[in-house]
Amino acid sequence: AALAVVSAQAKPLSQEDISVAEVLRDRALESSDAYSLVESLTVEVGPRRAGTEGDRRAVAWALQKMKTLGFDRVYTEQIDVKRWHRGHAHAEVVAPFPQPLVVSSLGYSVPTPEGGLTAEIVEFADVEALTKASAKKVKGKIVFINRRMERARTGEGYGPAVQGRSKGMRIAAEKGAVALLLRSVGTDSDRFAHTGMMSIEGVENPVPALALSAPDANLLEAMLKRGKPVEVKLDVDNELLADGPSFNVIGEITGREKPEEVMIIGAHLDSWDEGTGALDDGAGVAIVLETARLIAELPSRPRRTLRVVLFGAEEIGLVGAKQYVEAHRSELDNIIAVSESDFGAGKVWRFDTRLPENKFDIADQMMQLLAPLGIERGNNNSHGGPDGSVFVAQGVPAFGLYQDGTDYFDFHHTPNDTLDKVDPENLKQNVAAWVVMSFLVAEMEGDLGRVPTEH
Amino acid sequence: AALAVVSAQAKPLSQEDISVAEVLRDRALESSDAYSLVESLTVEVGPRRAGTEGDRRAVAWALQKMKTLGFDRVYTEQIDVKRWHRGHAHAEVVAPFPQPLVVSSLGYSVPTPEGGLTAEIVEFADVEALTKASAKKVKGKIVFINRRMERARTGEGYGPAVQGRSKGMRIAAEKGAVALLLRSVGTDSDRFAHTGMMSIEGVENPVPALALSAPDANLLEAMLKRGKPVEVKLDVDNELLADGPSFNVIGEITGREKPEEVMIIGAHLDSWDEGTGALDDGAGVAIVLETARLIAELPSRPRRTLRVVLFGAEEIGLVGAKQYVEAHRSELDNIIAVSESDFGAGKVWRFDTRLPENKFDIADQMMQLLAPLGIERGNNNSHGGPDGSVFVAQGVPAFGLYQDGTDYFDFHHTPNDTLDKVDPENLKQNVAAWVVMSFLVAEMEGDLGRVPTEH
Ligand SMILES: [Zn+2]
Ligand SMILES: [Zn+2]
Ligand SMILES: [Zn+2]
Ligand SMILES: [Zn+2]
Q: Which residues contact A257 (CB under 8 A, 6 or more apart)?
């Protein structure tokens, strides 16, 4: 019994704090406010690609919402973003079987020449096969990368599949291709193309790059199997614009004892421009805002500052997070931990961390409150979310409340990312988990140390 | 025992015929040829709206396929169709929450004035509510009909929901509206608008008419709930063209004893123009062609002629069927029965008929072979399919192999009606049922009489 007492006393989270967290958790399960927030963002703002009018409206929306939610301080920090205009993108097979194709320009795709371009397509199983191909095979052709993505609860099919999107245009252009057609990085079989970011830095002669919907990639595949050359016409009207401003939008609940120590919880405010960004990342925005609102309603502030950062320009290369870390480099040691919600609106099923080994007991204590939500303890490899990973790379500890992403990539970066895909009950469960984690980190005694930095 | 023998002899279908039908059924279950046909039609032709280039290619495709499938006679019969060019259709909310909407022109929608039109929307629960509304409420506005369709295996939600599409524009125009926006007649929540036919005959001042995807109808609904006027801009560029030709494509297996008596099995060859028409009605085309091929491979022809009619221009008002019946009015008495497959590619689960009461025993005998396919006996109210109904109205008996349509209206008339929605195994089961029904009607002694005509 004496040993048990010692052991209980050694635990970093006090029973009182855990009791408060439990109350917060149960309030979260009763509240539909997170759903109202994502409804508001999708209805009143909708698409909000970084640097567009929609983005500006989203920033205004976030400031206005934060001001009503009980934050002590609400402000923006400007960032610089590469801007780009999406014009039309038409594609059609002209031979041997003329029919239209559904496509979407990848982010920053250059236009075709006025009047379009027509060329034969050449198929590659994946970006590795393209890399190995001779320039002779590719020159003057439209490269068609036809790699399928695997469905998984973890979304782990994304990493390998997204290589074609991020690197395909560069490699195709270097080998003299006239354009890239990419089977969408997605798990659905709906006639939506999945847009997304590609790397354009330093590409000397970029060529148009378009995602094909899965049924359209199937069509090209079936035509090619018939053995005759398949010719496709592309007509794309995009434009690279001058750099412009966007913003990280920030709300703080100021710590009562150690206001300079900060727990950052985040999501990204920007979205792609064809859907209304309900899953990516309206849900995340709603989850972290509602988490903060619940904590702000407590009779006293937590020990530390809880800072909600709605990152700008995540979709175009973690721009808001990178510029945030750059601007706040001298304060990084005071960021006690980071976590971002950016994987849709599925139920949280796993609790990952990135902590020094001697801090695992904190996570174990949190599990007391997370397990009843159907959450299991995961691994210590969390990257804290896409924007969070920029902090983790600097040694900031992270938490990861892993959502069920089984159908996330059915909708990701398509016009079909809309509010109806968000289950209000799942959102409550998310907030319940987030408020436990966020409150306990902001309130706990001691700190979480640093994690090894990545180079 | 004597009674049993008499009873057996009184049955209209002989045991030998039933045995042959059973062999055909089991061959159908082994063959993937129907899937190959719908694959070929969607890959090599794709969209084939009546009167377009795609329609012409579909007619050539059908003739060429029929010539390889063992028909005794293959021919076309010309029909006249109203032609129409689908241009772009853009819609966006301009106030209070600017964002784009996903829409599709309904068939024969007129364009907007050059540069588009902008007006406030006025919402109606359904076409009945619009009918009752004062012209004052509607004049100068964009009518928004916001009726949801119910999901059902039978598809019975379609009839009531489609009223808004068929009549909405006419009523809106008569009351002085400047356009119609219709919540899509569909059961999905994907960001696809469902196009389709509307009645334009005799509308003096037609206005642009567009379907909204379900998520976009939700958006308008949510904006209107906020109480401020919602203004929408439409920019539509369609064109009514001169009438032109299309074709019914017909293949016959000539009867060995009564070639002048004909069982018609059909599907429609045309499709809407945004998908590849895999479910509507590529699957039906494949099912009836494969049914005929299996029967053509028997060592002898059935007693009667089996005529496969691939109707043209079904989508724009059963045009091919109506002109067929008009052109063949004097031969209608020789059409012993009709049946059409036009409800996608789900499993057949119910066997309906439209027979004189004294012919029910034929259907009962067919059930011996259909029941093992998971098919139950339905009612005697079959209309023989959309095109089939034109024959039934003239007294021709009909059979209806009712498919499971639970998800049919998720895809119907959208870009998402593509090959991947067709389950090859379900198609085999369909052909198995069709070949039983088709062979036994073509082969049986006696006839099916006439059914009461409709007026
Ligand atoms: Zn995201
Ligand atoms: Zn994203
Ligand atoms: Zn149809
Ligand atoms: Zn149809």
A: A303, A304
